[in-house]
Amino acid sequence: QVQLVESGGGLVQAGGSLRLSCAASGPIFSRYVMGWFRQAPGKEREFVAAIIWSGDNTYYADSVKGRFTISRDNTKNTVYLQMNNLKPEDAAVYYCAAKSRGIPTRNYDSWGQGTQVTVSS
């Protein structure tokens, strides 16, 4: 099972940007589907974005399309989430996730501990 560690969260004003990183340990990171999810207080965890192993295909929740970009660097075993034009409703704990196959928007096997994103209005 791959180990995941997120970083890059913090406090930002509405309209600002943050870049989250997720460092993975494991021998076959380059073959994993990687995803980002988020969970706000009192809400269920929701899919944000995903990227397949080659980086050729990406997937986004409608709420973040055009504002967030997921990318990966397989040489560094790292996946990123660039978040632009942040809104107060984007505030949540963001989790990195990994899986070896399957539908990119759900059913992940491995999870990071999460990183807090706070957006002030």
What are the key terms here?
121 residues, mainly beta, seven-stranded mixed beta sheet, four-stranded antiparallel beta sheet, 11 strands, globular
What does this entry look like structurally?
The chain is mostly beta strands and 121 residues long. 0% of the residues lie in helices and 50% in strands. The protein has strands spanning 3-7, 10-13, 18-25, 33-39, 46-51, 58-60, 68-73, 78-83, 92-99, 110-111, 115-120. Strands 2, 4, 5, 6, 9, 10 and 11 form a seven-stranded mixed beta sheet that branches. It has a four-stranded antiparallel beta sheet with strand order 1-3-8-7, with no helix packed on it. It is globular and about 40 Å long. The mean pLDDT is 94.
The chain-level structural class is mainly beta
Order of helical and strand elements? EEEEEEEEEEE
Q: Report Rg.
A: 13 Å
Largest sheet: 7 strands, mixed
Instruction: Tell me the number of helical segments per DSSP (H or I, 4 or more residues long).
Output: 0
Low-confidence stretches: none
Determine the N-to-C terminus distance.
Answer: 39 Å
Strand percent estimate: over 45%
Strand tally, please? Answer: 11
What level of helicity do the residues show? Answer: under 10%
Mean pLDDT: 94
Question: Which term fits the overall shape?
Answer: globular
